[in-house]
Amino acid sequence: MFEVLLGLACASALPALAASEEPVARAAREFLLDRAAQAGLVQPEVSLKLIAGDGAPLACATAPRVEALDTRHPSRMRYAAVCPASGARAEYVVRAELSAQVVVAPGGIAARRPIAGHEVTLERRPLAGSAEVTSDPEDVIGQSARRAIRAGQVVDRKLLVEPVLVRRGAAVRIVARNGPVLVTAAGEAMEVGHAGDIVNVRNTTTGNVIRARVIGSNEVEPADMPIAPSAPQSAR
């Protein structure tokens, strides 16, 4: 076996390779860049290492056909180059690293509170493991982390949840709007709720329990009221 190292940026040309190696490297690179594009990642770059196995190097009269044998794990993908006329084939293990500009927490983020815009930024990082990353800060701003995120750590979207706006036993304000008329009442939340959740709330004046929609921090409205259209959000 022998190894071929390739550093491939998004728009870079491939270095000189054996006839059967160049199509394999190009196919692996295009596969990973396409995956990055589908995920909306910004400025993706690919670094490849080809490990040639049985049948390599391959000599074909025409350009070989490339078959993707296993692309589940970028760190160890398998490809084959096949001569169209003779059927001769060579197999390659492709060890790849994909990097991109992704959302990180430069100063760390505390757990269980909404993430603010100033707490995140974009930095180039290698994409490894099972982390679900994003290149759009708006995907994480306003959500909360299940556990604290360390300074400099990539923000993994799988660890994020909508923030809890109403907690069980908390005093809440029940808001009922009818055109210009606004009626409020004091209540007690009987369940935990996120934005838009329907929870049981006890009116502390009447003792009645109603179903209410969570609309803000410790604020609810009767669930049978129509949902008001969202106001345009100002730039963060």
From TrEMBL:
It comes from the Bacteria. Keywords: Bacterial flagellum biogenesis, Cell projection, Cilium, Flagellum, Periplasm, Signal. Belongs to the FlgA family. Gene3D superfamilies: 2.30.30.760, Antifreeze-like/N-acetylneuraminic acid synthase C-terminal domain. Its main location: periplasm. It holds the Pfam family ChapFlgA. Involved in the assembly process of the P-ring formation. It may associate with FlgF on the rod constituting a structure essential for the P-ring assembly or may act as a modulator protein for the P-ring assembly. The keyword Acetylation does not apply. It is found in: Periplasm. This is Flagella basal body P-ring formation protein FlgA. Residues 1-18 form the signal peptide. Residues 101-221 form the Flagella basal body P-ring formation protein FlgA SAF domain. One of its GO terms (cellular component) is periplasmic space. One of its GO terms (biological process) is bacterial-type flagellum assembly. The keyword Signal applies. InterPro entries: Flagellar_FlgA, SAF_FlgA.
